[in-house]
Amino acid sequence: MLEKETLSVDGKIFTLDYGYDALGTLSSLAYPDGKGAVNFAPNGFGQATQAIRVDGSDSTVFVKGGNDKASYHPNGTINTFTYGNNLVHKTTLNSRQLPQLIHDYLGSTSKVKLGYSYDNNNNITSIINGVDSNFSLSALTYDGLDRLKSTTGNSAGIGSSALSYDALGNIRSYSNTSVLNPSNLTYGYNSSFRLSSVSGTGSEGYNFSQSGSYDNRGNVTHNGKRSFSYNLANQMTASGANRYLYDGYNRRIKTTDSKGTGYSMYSQQGRLLYRETVKGGISYIYLGDKLVAKTGAGVVTKSDDAGYNSVMNFKPFGETIEAANDEVGYTGHKFDTDLGLSYMQARYYDPAIGKFNQPDPVDVLGHLARGSIVHGFNPYTYANNNPYKYIDPTGKIPALLLFAPEIVALGKATLFVGSAGVAGYAGSEAINTYNESSKDEPVKDKKRKYTKKDRKKMYETADGKCEYCGDDITMDPGTGKSMEGDHIIPWVDGGQTDENNGAATCRDCNRSKGKKRLGEKGDQFPPKDPNDRIKDKMLKE
Predict the structure, then answer these.
(1) CA–CA separation, 360 vs 352, rounded Å?
(2) At which of 378, 394, 427 does a domain end?
(3) Does 190 score more than 70 pLDDT?
(4) Cβ(33)–Cβ(18) below 8 Å
(5) Do 423 and 462 share a structural domain?
(6) What's the pLDDT score for residue 494?
(7) pLDDT averaged over every residue in the chain
(8) Is the domain of 128 the same as that of 62?
(9) With contact defined as beta carbons under 8 Å apart, do 330 and 423 qualify?
(10) pLDDT class for 511, splitting at 50, 70, 90?
């Protein structure tokens, strides 16, 4: 089990210390700020029941324990918990185990109260705001592919939206009537089906028609507002004077922009845990997968416990109704006001136009393997064009969203985060990317190891040669050239354990390769395209 994680950059050292109970469940986490570990008191199912930081004789309660400890529904969704300032969070599920009511309240005063209804495909059809009706959506409609077509709301608040698409899932038009930030966009595409124009209210400054708007890998290099540069891993490394640095997990660990130099540290699951800016460090506190607080330098606070709200509202694809905030925002991703983009780890996303700036690193076959039969054909689409049902935690694979967060900032020393709302609808100063019962990892095949029959089939398909080094391999165990079955799409990333996703490798290559994919950039093995191999095989069959 991971006990300590250290990030060393620019002579700075940031350390995370993990503690576990006797069952191997995470029981504490000490952040780089050195202010004591946050204790989670996991129950018998490994679910965190509190979030309390102990620093010597001092303690900070983010989520109460004891008699007020967090409870869970049978499906693992958080039922109720109480923040350290007595704000109570409660989630009521319907008969399909989907959120019916999300309620954050302090005494008799509701801070967040959102009711949901659904159609037979589990698409949200209404969101009723019991605190501010100007931000209710009385109706949401979808087409036959479950893509969002329209929302109906009050123009004085959230407004109504309308969308249309072409056969490839490209947005052709997108409008919103909110008087606070209206838009009416029309989209054009070139012969490569890449965005070439955006016109209408809200499109000011966009220009994708220049010869240098895209590089040869499909990354947006100029959108009319800013230029963008990328390395060979398709990571954005520069935009104007801004500079960005990434770790081996494709997570942005250093930024240099108009606000100075900042550093970030993530969990192995990709959750932002710590940021250090020129103002100091900020720790992000979670109850399981739910972001519940942030604490540290520059955190918005209030001098009493009266229930101060800090709420931001979003159009369907994530553009803010209010002024954008350079923080963790829409679906829990860091928004860069300098760029006008949300950083989603594998890619950057433009919420004003509802499209990614880079093509999907997961190809069509990868999406097919995960059950996305139609939507995987468009490499720039966000959340299957249904941002109320799906999120994209890592910028790769849309994940079902049972509910997304809205912020309620309450307290003296920290910003407490109340969870409610829906993606594209609510959010704020800090926000939870990951819902309780839908993890940020892809759903894994229960079967992880290939059978002897599977390995023999892969051996025959590869003509008895390793698909990495090309050497002869043997079915006999115990040598470096013994045949092993390797997942082309890694099992930990949701790859299936079947012959179509299997590559014959020698043990030496498989053990050296680790989680790298066949032919991955930066790999020391000969570049091959496993997807072409699979497609050729399917055609022969």
Answers:
(1) 19
(2) 427
(3) yes
(4) no
(5) no
(6) 56
(7) 81
(8) yes
(9) yes
(10) low
Radius of gyration (C-alpha) of the chain in whole angstroms = 24
Kindly tell me the burial class for residue 2, based on how many C-beta atoms sit within 10 Å of its own C-beta (0-12, 13-18, 19 or more): exposed
Residues 464 and 418 occupy one common structural domain: no
Residue 68: pLDDT band (50, 70, 90) is very high
Question: Using CA atoms, how far apart are residues 34 and 17, in angstroms rounded to an integer?
Answer: 10
Q: Is residue 440 part of a domain?
A: no
Amino acid at 364: V
Q: Are both 422 and 466 inside the same structural domain?
A: no
Find the domain containing 371 and state its range.
4-427
Q: Are residues 394 and 476 in the same domain?
A: no
pLDDT digits (tens, 9 = 90+) for 97-108: 999 999 999 999
Q: Residue 371 has what pLDDT?
A: 55
Residues 141 and 190 in one domain: yes
Instruction: Please check whether residue 436 lies inside any domain of the structure.
Output: no
255 and 167 belong to one structural domain = yes
The structure tokens 């595409």 sit at 189
DSSP state of 209: -
Q: Cα separation of 307 and 300, whole Å?
A: 13
- Per DSSP, the residues of 372-402 read -TTGGG-TTBSGGG-TTTEE-TTSSS-EE-S
Contact 410, 106 (CB under 8 A): yes
What average pLDDT does this structure show over 375-382? Answer: 80
Q: In the structure, how many helices (H) and strands (E) does the chain have?
A: 4, 37
Give the tens place of pLDDT for each residue, 306-320.
444 457 788 999 888
Domain count, the chain: 2
Looking from the CA of 445 toward its CB, the CA atoms found within 13 Å total 18
439 assigned to some structural domain: no
Which CATH number characterizes residue 199's domain?
2.180.10.10
End-to-end CA distance of the chain: 43
Three-state SS for 9-76 is ECCEEEEEEEEECCCCCEEEEECCCCCCEEECCCCCCCCCCCEEEEECCEEEEEECCHHHCCEECCCC
Q: Which pLDDT belongs to residue 162?
A: 98
- Residue 135 in any domain: the answer is yes
- The mean-pLDDT minimum among 134-138, 252-256, 344-348, 484-488 falls in 484-488
What does the alpha-carbon distance between residue 243 and residue 71 come to, in Å, rounded to a whole number? 43
- What whole-number distance in Å separates Cα of residue 425 and Cα of residue 21? 38
What's the rounded Cα separation, in Å, for the pair 418 and 407? 5
With contact defined as beta carbons under 8 Å apart, do 139 and 149 qualify? Answer: no
Distance in angstroms (rounded) separating the CA atoms of residues 306 and 301: 12
| Sign for the pseudo-dihedral over CA of 458, 459, 461, 466 | positive
